[in-house]
Inverse folding.
């Protein structure tokens, strides 16, 4: 798979290179799935009364973890330089879970 003319492996390598600090990696390991899971729950909350606080909390906590991790890393998130990195985080997480990142 390619994104912006670059292979996804290249994007993941670059993303991984800016996520080396153990605290940052742990924050991203927890935060990325929280953000990803919150998105379909926001859609479900349109149809389920009273559900919206859960996806909102997941989304906010997930993003807070991202920024806490980058504080420890000492670098800004990659998406500050290139917005396409917003689409790489979940792929990095999957690669990390599989032991490939």
């Amino acid at each position: 798979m390619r994104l912006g003319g670059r292979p996804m492996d290249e994007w993941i390598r670059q993303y991984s290179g800016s996520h080396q600090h153990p605290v940052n990696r742990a924050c991203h390991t927890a935060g990325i799935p929280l953000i990803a899971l919150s998105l379909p729950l926001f859609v479900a909350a349109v149809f389920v009364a009273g559900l919206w606080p859960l996806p909102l909390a997941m989304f906010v906590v997930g993003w807070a973890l991202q920024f806490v991790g980058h504080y420890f890393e000492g670098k800004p998130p990659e998406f500050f330089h290139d917005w396409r990195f917003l689409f790489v985080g979940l792929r990095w997480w999957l690669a990390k879970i599989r032991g490939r990142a």
In short: Residues 22-47 form the longest helix (26 residues). The helical segments are 8-17, 22-47, 53-73, 89-97.
